[in-house]
């Protein structure tokens, strides 16, 4: 399976136009569809997701950066990485992630293939640094996993890509739960408070948030330049800055970005497209379950939703596609209530499996 890397979207060229009030009239938020997944694959994927043996040094699991107790992120502005490395971006939540039309902050992978995203994160040197061949041999030495594998596919040895696909299948189960807005949209007027309803009107109207945050996930799946300030800790942090900068340069190098060694900022989708119009463009994040997913933005620059709303109200920063909104204090409060109360449901929890032990086993005849 090859990653479907997005070089440039025609819609990306229309990003500025999509921010107009006219575009907002045609868009709206929608309730989440019912999840569809293969239960046997997802059950195996649940075990693999929490197993540290999915990483090269057997110290990190997917849940190390995507912790259910932290909104399926890690609660930090900038994610950690494989030992002796640090990430230069925020660990995004996995809630509803498989419904997005683009994956990752720079939107470099098409949506709909969570298995490939899982593979890239698990095998990437600065994330989990796992070799797929070593991974499948580890799994073969865990009797519980072999038995579970047999329930899915008899007479078939575990292999790396199927493991990644199973983790992707499990990710389909990580969905928002009991969201007031979804109930409201289906006709339950009592599901949201009066303030949250007023905030929904700001969201659709004066705030024009809906032009980019629409559909079931609350994301248009496009790339936009909002002008979020650079996180100074990516470069200037005396302890972690050099490691983050190295990770950033390594990403630019493997993406084939020209003159990458001169980069000291996060260029976003430009590293993928090589089109200078894409400098500073990032994938539109979901607005669901914001109650649990702070800090916000691709680099975790905003610790609170108040900071996010103020930033958008001011029209972003220099070079942004945004325009000042002129929201009143009441309108800001209503918008916050809608996002935190109306669009956030119950905590998305899962039963964390106990990690089964190795048991050295031989297969076939020697």
Describe the protein's architecture and organization.
The protein is mainly α. It folds into two domains: 147 residues, Cytochrome c-like domain (Cytochrome Bc1 Complex, Chain D, domain 2), CATH 1.10.760; 133 residues, Cytochrome c-like domain (Cytochrome Bc1 Complex, Chain D, domain 2). The chain is built from 13 helices and four strands. A two-stranded antiparallel ribbon has the order 1-2. A hairpin with a 5-residue loop joins strand 1 and strand 2. Helix 3 runs antiparallel to helix 6 and helix 9 packs across helix 13. The protein is globular, with a radius of gyration of 21 Å.
Rg over C-alpha atoms, rounded to the nearest angstrom: 21 Å
Distance between the termini: 32 Å
CATH topology assignment of the largest domain: Cytochrome Bc1 Complex, Chain D, domain 2
CATH architecture of the largest domain: Orthogonal Bundle
Number of strands: 4
Q: What is the topology, as strand order, of the major beta sheet?
A: 1-2
Q: Can you tell me the CATH class of the largest domain?
A: Mainly Alpha
**Silhouette:** globular
Structural class: mainly alpha
Could you tell me the mean pLDDT? 92
Q: What percent of residues adopt helix (DSSP H or I)?
A: 25-40%
What number of structural domains do the residues give?
2
DSSP strand (E) fraction? under 5%
CATH superfamily of the largest domain: Cytochrome c-like domain
The biggest beta sheet is recorded as:
2 strands, antiparallel
Order of helices and strands: HHHEEHHHHHHEHHEHH
């Amino acid at each position: 399976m090859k990653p479907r890397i997005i070089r440039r979207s025609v819609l990306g060229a229309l990003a500025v136009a999509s921010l107009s009030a006219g575009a907002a009239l045609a868009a709206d938020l929608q309730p989440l569809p019912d999840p569809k997944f293969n239960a046997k694959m997802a059950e195996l994927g649940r075990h693999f997701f929490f197993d540290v043996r999915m990483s090269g040094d057997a110290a990190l699991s997917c849940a190390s950066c995507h912790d259910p107790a932290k909104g399926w992120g890690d609660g930090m502005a900038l994610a950690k990485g494989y030992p002796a490395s640090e990430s230069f971006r925020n660990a995004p939540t996995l809630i509803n992630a498989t419904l997005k039309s683009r994956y990752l902050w720079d939107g470099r992978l098409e949506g709909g293939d969570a298995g490939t995203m899982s593979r890239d994160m698990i095998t990437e040197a600065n994330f989990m640094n796992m070799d797929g061949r070593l991974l499948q041999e580890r799994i073969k030495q865990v009797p519980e996993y072999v038995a579970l594998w047999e329930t899915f596919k008899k007479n078939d040895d575990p292999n790396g890509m199927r493991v990644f696909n199973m983790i992707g299948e499990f990710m389909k189960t990580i969905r928002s739960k009991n969201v007031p807005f979804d109930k409201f949209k289906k006709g339950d007027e009592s599901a949201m408070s009066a303030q949250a309803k007023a905030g929904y009107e700001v969201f659709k109207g004066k705030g024009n948030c809906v032009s980019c945050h629409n559909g079931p996930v609350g994301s248009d799946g496009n790339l936009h330049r909002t002008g979020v300030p650079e996180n100074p800790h990516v470069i200037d942090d005396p302890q972690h800055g050099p490691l983050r900068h190295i990770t950033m340069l390594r990403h630019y190098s493997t993406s084939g970005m020209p003159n990458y060694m001169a980069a000291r900022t996060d260029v976003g989708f430009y590293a993928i497209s090589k089109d200078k119009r894409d400098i500073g463009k990032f994938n539109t994040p979901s607005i669901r379950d914001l109650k649990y997913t702070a800090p916000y933005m691709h680099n975790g620059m905003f610790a609170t939703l108040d900071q996010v709303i103020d930033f958008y109200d001011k029209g972003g920063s220099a070079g942004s596609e945004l325009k000042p909104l002129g929201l009143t204090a009441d309108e800001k409060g209503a918008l916050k209530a809608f996002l935190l109360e109306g669009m956030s449901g119950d905590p998305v929890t899962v039963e964390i499996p106990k990690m089964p032990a190795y048991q050295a086993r031989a297969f076939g005849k020697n």
